[in-house]
Amino acid sequence: MQEQIQFTDETAAAGVDQITFEVIRGALQAVCNEAGIVLMKGAMSMVINQGQDFSAAVLTPDGGLVMQGEEDFPCFITMMSPSTKAFLKECPKEDMRPGDVYICNDPYRGGTHKPDVRMLRPVFWEDEIVAFVSNSGHWPDVGGQTPGSFPVDACDSIAEGLCIPPIKIASDDAVVEDVEKLILANLRLPISSRGDIRAMIASLQTGEKRLHELYARYGKGTVSAVMREYIRYSERLLRSAIRALPEGSFTWTDYIDEDPGIADADKKMIKVGLTIRIENGRLIYDFSESDPQTAGGVNAPISMTMSACFIATKAIFPEIPVNEGVYDAIDIIAPEGSVVNCRYPAPVVGCQSGAYQKIVNCVFGCFSQITPERVIASSPSLINVVIGGVDTRENSPLNGTPYVFYCWTEGGYGARATRDNKSFIALYASGTRNQPVEMFEQQFPISWEKYEFAADSGGPGKYRGGLGIERVMHMDGEIGTASVMGDGERNAGWGLFGGKAGHGQRLVRNMGGAEEFNIGMFRSGAKVRQGDKIDLWSGGGGGYGDPLERDPAAVMEDVKDGYVSVDGALRDYGVVVREIDWEALEYELDLDATQAARGEMRAAAAE
């Protein structure tokens, strides 16, 4: 790293040297990691205990982010600061006591969408709040009009499910049973959600315990001084990186497929427009050219927009730790009432699949004009798929019980300046994992017929975008409903510097059959019955550079791996590959024919 700890009067008085700083910094990292592990191991819902859709963090007494788990969901981490500050507005610190835990899921109080539930615990030392520990986890259902709480047709935030304002869920380390009872009465899965509540509380207890051990060993003054210096350290690093960039204005635009809240005849693409200005060692992200907020839930509350900006900035400058110091070096201009800073009660349940990814894409698009070697091409948006109903499998111990099946798709990252990028990744900068097929089939009346890379889905380029996934699921239950909140059916992940777009996304019932029906990316309550097949395609990332400059040998390897078809090799890369024996993976690369094909393609493009 370019900067070192600066020994101020505060750090010197606290006895902090470089070694002490690093030891305490590492210990704070371990606090978050262990709190996350406790949450993952204790939660009952697959979304958390298998998908790892959670995070844990340590914050200062005024709500400044200090540290987060190494494998946590970054989208949650970067909204921990606005979330904690929202807690403190309504839950004064002077009213807090040891053993208190607060809960909230309101997107307009520093959150994302309602299924993402946050908890906060004050950490006391010597009768003073010295820190906060916080966590967040995605619950598989928070009520509302559709199983899984992704109602595409919700006209406002109220219709998206139960709203929990900042309220005490535990006092003196005992659950406040009336509050818990009220929450669970509004959910479709009260048993697993009760387990998630207890796991989140236990996670924060663990975080507090480890912080107490740290304060006991080093003292309040030393640990607190390291927290504050770590924040200043990140700010100095980012400001130093910004000063090395050329000053100026850089603009990019991306589009959400549609506003799902308006009639089909009136639908149009929704613009997310960003101008980045670099001035006097500051980054200014200006979204003034973005469209007004939508009637449907693809909007982002301001905390979500902040999160997307910080995540993308971190990706461009990976050496800089993400904490409150990064926030202090960036200014965000997001007009209230826009799709990137919607006014209550606009619906926001699709913020991660809608505005979030477009914001990240716009940051990368702008920086492709500043530091092209540091960015990637576009990655596809998240697809949230929920199937709900009653389990009617005769041989299942869950027979007769309601179920809510929730999965998100794994797509491909956009290609980089020097290499292909990752396949099978959920939501850009995600710490989540795919949930095992075997557990899905145990817990839900759904079986898998296919789960594999989708050939030709990665955007062609000198460097190829990561591949998307094709899933084919078979409905084993008698009847259910399918809902989806996604994006990218029309606007696939774009490429950079001559790279092409990746494959678009789709969700189809009984594809290729007489009853084929395109469910699409925005739908609530589509009927599914026993024997139906659900075909789900996630998109690939965009390519980077001219596909005709890709090494023919690399295309040949992609064909052998099943990433690119023989036809796709010629169509997208001008590479002639002949199949000799598919089962034996025997192919022939014809370099003379490739040279001729590429010459024809270049000539056609020049006309």
Explained architecture:
The structure is a single chain. The protein has helices at 9-13, 18-42, 46-49, 74-77, 80-90, 177-184, 190-218, 220-243, 302-316, 324-328, 352-367, 437-443, 552-561, 566-573, 591-606, and strands at residues 54-59, 65-68, 101-104, 116-125, 128-138, 167-171, 174-175, 248-256, 270-279, 282-286, 330-333, 384-390, 402-408, 446-453, 469-475, 479-485, 506-509, 517-518, 522-529, 533-537, 576-581, 586-590. The protein is of the alpha+beta class and 607 residues long. The protein has a seven-stranded antiparallel sheet with strand order 2-1-5-4-3-6-7, with helices on both faces. α2 packs antiparallel against α7, α7 (190-218) packs across α8 and α9 runs parallel beside α11 (352-367). It is globular, with a radius of gyration of 25 Å. It starts with 8 loop residues before the first helix and ends with a helix. The mean pLDDT is 94.
